[in-house]
Amino acid sequence: MAKHSKKYREAAERIDRNNLYTPEEAIALLKSMPSYNFDQTVEAVLRLNVDPRKADQLVRGSVNLPNGTGKTAKVLVFARGPKATEALEAGADIVGDDDLVEQVANGFLDFDSVVATPDMMGKVGRLGRVLGPRGLMPNPKTGTVTMDVTKAVKDIKGGKVDFRVDKNGNLSFLFGKLSFTAEALDENFRAIADEVKRLKPSTVKGRYITKATITATMDPGVPVDPASI
After folding, report:
1. Where are the transmembrane segments (predicted)?
2. Superfamily of domain covering 18-68+160-224
3. Counting CB atoms within 10 angstroms of each CB, which of 9, 23, 127, 130 has the fewest?
4. Tens digits of per-residue pLDDT, 124-163?
């Protein structure tokens, strides 16, 4: 059995495991827990009543958080010529074409988000095994395969969050830092939850969100009532 720190145990004791909290209550509870000497990331996990093996139930999307993520993402852009210049001027951290595709194929993964122009996707598509499992593969549905690289880069730098349900039906996303006000965290959480609900597949019957948890980097998860989302 894993041994937890004194702070973790103290935090766990504050959670009533017989109770399901609202998102606001869960966030307030996390903010009341013992602090650490760094700003923890706040995350949520939703269990969805979907079968990701079916194409029409593969829930994925993106949201520009109203209060940002509290983190400046490192953005890589696959582009050439004027579009490469445009990406750099927009604030992209890494820009390249064929040589950069080769670097990533060989294991270079020092970035948080990926954007690509459509003309590069023939070669970028071969990186699916590298980028796909990490949720980094560019996709038109999330605005990361586009000729408007300026907008894509600025959206990501400004707090855009991509999400995608995994093979077990779980959907996880970060939505801020513990130093944010409770109101800012709640606004961010609601922005993503509303988009997830909007994307509910028409073929899904019954309850869509069956389980939910909100947590911070070093703290135990707080169970959230799916009906309150």
Report:
1. none
2. Ribosomal protein L1/L10, rRNA-binding domain (3.30.190.20)
3. 9
4. 999 999 998 888 999 998 889 999 999 999 999 988 888 9
Q: How far is it, in rounded angstroms, from Cα 26 to Cα 47?
A: 17
Q: What is the per-residue burial (b if ≥16 Cβ within 10 Å, else e) of 147-170?
A: eebbebbbbbbebbbbbbbeeebe
Give the dihedral sign, CA 99/102/107/109: positive
79: which residues sit within 8 A by CB, 6+ positions away? Answer: 86, 87, 95, 97, 115, 116, 117, 120, 149
Options 3.20.20.370, 3.40.50.1220, 3.40.50.790, 1.10.3720.10; CATH of 75-157: 3.40.50.790
